[in-house]
Design a protein that fits this description.
Blueprint lengths: L3 E4 L2 E4 L4 E7 L8 E7 L5 E7 L6 E3 L7 E6 L4 E6 L8 E8 L16 E2 L3 E6 L1
Parallel strand pairs: 2-11
Antiparallel strand pairs: 1-3, 3-8, 4-5, 4-9, 5-6, 7-8, 9-10, 9-11
Length: 127
């Protein structure tokens, strides 16, 4: 079982930046793809970004392209989500998740393919 813990959330003004971290409990983290999802108040959980196990490929929701960057440091068992130019509509609880297998692009955008989830971290963007 891979345990994931998000950190780095908080309150930021529109146009500001935050860097979220997702720390994994074990060394085998390097074999998992990592996805970030978010859930706004009263809304469902939406895909934000994903990165393959090696970090070679990344995927982003259209709403965050050009503003968010996903990365990982397998030596530290940690994945990151750098969020720039934040907007009020980015306000949500952000979750990181780990998927045990590789797949095609669509695989990484579907939350059902992720077997391990963190508890989430709140990001609030004020106007």
């Amino acid at each position: 079982q891979v345990q994931l813990v998000e950190s780095g959330g908080g309150l930021v003004q529109a146009g500001g930046s935050l860097r979220l971290s997702c720390a994994a409990s074990e060394r085998t983290f390097s074999s998992y793809a990592v996805g970030w999802f978010r859930q706004a108040p009263g809304k469902g959980r939406d895909f934000v970004a994903a990165i393959t196990s090696t970090g070679v490929s990344t995927y982003y929701a259209d709403s965050v392209k050009g503003r968010f960057t996903i990365s990982r440091d397998n030596a530290k068992n940690t994945a990151y989500l750098q969020m720039n130019s934040l907007k009020p509509e980015d306000t949500a609880v952000y979750f990181c998740a780990a998927a045990p297998r590789r797949g095609y692009a669509a695989y990484y955008t579907a939350q059902n393919n992720y077997n391990h989830w963190g508890q989430g971290t709140q990001v609030t963007v004020s106007s």
